[in-house]
Specification:
This protein is an alpha/beta fold and about 190 residues long. It has helices at about 60-70, 85-95, 95-105, 115-125, 135-145; strands spanning about 5, 15-20, 30, 45-50, 70-85, 145-150, 175-180. α2 (about 85-95) packs across α3 and α3 (about 95-105) crosses α4. The radius of gyration is 16 Å and the shape is globular.
């Protein structure tokens, strides 16, 4: 079974091919994920990526997802975790203290005044180039040949991806998405 972890950073997964641009995290493969990926067609059973896709604007995301689609076996699954812009905005408006708590316990970058506005500004500045909500991500993924389903923390249609998520829902604003090649039945 071939399992690939894109954007592994300092969190490699045992038994997976860990891929990252930065050699400091000691990935198995050093690669620029915004370019053609160094893998054969239909070679991967599962692909996982946590906290990477926010580095890509929609056109670049489409290219990355197209490469993942090319690499996946027909019955394969791509699991993506990324900040959920809609949840981030709702927390800012409705639960600012929760947003500040998430930031101070999980991110740790000092807040200038300790407010949710600090979190909103720093979050948008530091989280990546582009923030996605489910609808926007799904539209890009669809154009790359995927059907997308919202999943839950730690749960996956693919057994190898159950329990590997780093960001817990009560500590972060992540969304958990399962992408399957178009036309396959997905389970969440």
């Amino acid at each position: 079974m071939i399992l690939v972890n894109f954007g592994s950073g300092p969190y490699p997964l045992a038994g997976w091919i860990n891929v990252d641009l930065d050699p400091a995290g000691r990935p198995d493969v050093v690669a620029d994920l915004s370019r053609t990926l160094p893998f054969a067609d239909a070679c991967a059973d599962a692909i996982f990526s946590e906290d990477f896709v926010a580095q890509l604007e929609p056109d670049a995301l489409r290219g990355f997802l197209s490469e993942c689609r090319r690499m996946l076996k027909p019955e394969g699954t791509l699991r993506v975790l990324t900040p959920d812009l809609a949840r981030f905005a709702r927390l800012f408006l409705d639960e600012p203290a929760t947003l500040v708590r998430f930031w101070t316990t999980a991110v740790g970058v000092p807040l200038p005044t300790g407010t949710a506005a600090d979190v909103l500004n720093l979050g948008m500045k530091l989280a990546g180039r582009w923030q996605y909500d489910v609808e926007t991500f799904s539209r890009v993924a669809s154009s790359a040949g995927f059907d997308v389903a919202v999943s839950r923390y730690g749960e996956s249609r693919h057994p190898a991806m159950r329990g590997i998520d780093l960001r817990k829902p009560d500590e972060a604003v992540s969304m958990y998405l399962e992408c399957v090649p178009r036309g396959t039945v997905s389970e969440s």
